[in-house]
Design a protein that fits this description.
By secondary structure, the protein is an alpha/beta fold. The chain contains 12 helices and 13 strands. Strands 4-5-13-10-11-12 form a 6-stranded mixed beta sheet, sandwiched between helices. A 4-stranded parallel beta sheet has the order 8-7-6-9. α7 runs parallel beside α9 (311-320). The termini are far apart.
């Protein structure tokens, strides 16, 4: 397998055992997730982002696989949209939405799925399989199709029709499982008789690694757009579900500090829906291990992950940067999504609405100040679940 110069291999996030690129899946010694490690000393900080690859592969100096072998559709390079009316309402100096809905399949998952499918293609293994709340299944089918590999996506019955349809449109096989996300995850091994290459978050070592390129892009965009004195915003607000977005984004921010490209990591806030908030609850309790959420219930299906595989990694990431976690109600999330869609053009879904509602809550509590610049991450496009947003409006008599 072709790897980049900085890529050292895989390290267990629990016992610390190291492995080569040939390893796949969780740690064979203790069962914890593996994560890529890098020798940052071989990376020229001034040249980070100057690679020849498309999208996020401009940053292949700190990715496991070089652009030349990547299974890519140009994911990344999503816009950082300045939202002046939102900033005024929040009472902050500047507000931006990092719009991950502009990725090829309309989700931040495209970043990590590109790397995970590249690993599978380099290994020459198939079929690929995963359970998904929706977006990850669609993304996996798309990238597997580009690599010419068979794939299976197991999704709960409540998954949005748009995701279900596009899994098949991209050429993937789909299995709809009664119940919720956990039921779909359990069905993968129950229903697949043959061996498969897993694309599950924190089973494949690579999905969360793609999320860090979002942080690298903030460094460039903030330098061009922001009014403040620093190269990064003062605060970043992002939704938490499987844990991969939180863990990956924080890792990317820490990379920038380690390379001397930023002085410090911004304040990081992870937001969950109040009806399914295992990461936020664990953070508030001050524990290091996430417990499964009893009776998950949120209209935001992408965030209804009751037992997140990367929950512990998200907690560790927040602890490493003194970050925080909070919860918001579904109605506030949907109202936030609709408000921003009406005033800022951006089509925000329920998960993005959760992050936006979190920003409003942080502003009301005084955690965001008048001099702060804040970036809110919209993880997917609003057109994924327009029926949910429309139903919210109908509930208001609109």
């Amino acid at each position: 397998m072709q790897t980049t110069e900085a890529f050292e291999g895989l390290s267990c996030t629990d016992c610390g055992e190291t492995f080569g690129v040939e390893e796949h899946g969780r740690c064979p010694d203790c069962g914890a997730p593996l994560s890529p490690t890098y020798d940052r000393d071989v990376v020229d900080p001034a040249a980070l982002g100057d690679g020849d690859g498309p999208g996020q592969y401009r940053f292949d100096a700190l990715l496991p696989f070089p652009a030349g072998v990547a299974v890519t559709a140009g994911e990344g390079d999503t816009p950082l949209v300045r939202t002046d009316r939102l900033a005024e309402e929040l009472g902050v100096a500047a507000a931006f939405v990092k719009d991950e809905g502009r990725n090829p399949t309309g989700t931040f998952h495209d970043r990590g799925m590109s790397i995970a499918v590249t690993a599978a293609a380099e290994r020459g293994t198939e079929p690929l399989a995963l359970a998904a709340a929706g977006n990850a299944g669609q993304s996996a089918a798309a990238y597997a199709g580009r690599a010419g590999l068979r794939s299976y996506a197991f999704v709960p019955s409540r998954t949005a029709f748009s995701n279900k349809a596009m899994v098949n449109v991209h050429g993937g096989e789909m299995r709809v499982v009664g119940g919720r996300y956990g039921d779909a995850a359990a069905a993968v091994d129950e229903q697949l008789a043959a061996d498969y290459h897993s694309l599950q978050e924190f089973t494949t070592p690579y999905r969360h690694d793609g999320a860090k390129t979002l942080a690298y892009e903030l460094l460039e965009a903030e330098g061009d757009e922001a009014d403040g004195s620093g190269p990064l915003p003062d605060a970043i607000v992002l939704p938490a579900s499987t844990g991969e977005l939180v863990a990956g984004a924080v890792e990317g921010l820490r990379d920038l500090v380690a390379l001397g490209l930023a002085e410090s990591v911004p304040d990081v806030y992870a937001v969950q829906a109040a009806g399914c908030a295992p990461i936020a609850a664990a953070h508030e309790s001050g524990v290091e291990t996430v417990e499964a959420w009893d009776g998950p219930d949120t209209i935001v299906g992408e965030l209804e992950i009751d037992d997140p595989a990367g929950g512990d990694r998200a907690l560790a990431a927040l602890a490493a940067v003194d970050g925080d976690a909070l919860t918001v109600e579904d109605d506030d999330a949907l109202e936030s999504a609709v408000t921003v869609a009406r005033t800022e053009v951006i089509e925000v879904g329920g998960a993005g609405g959760v992050a936006l509602a979190g920003a409003w809550l942080l502003a009301e509590s005084g955690s965001l100040g008048a001099d702060d610049e804040v970036v809110i991450v919209n993880p997917d496009s609003g057109v994924k679940t327009p029926d949910v947003l429309r139903s919210h409006l109908m509930g208001k008599g609109i």
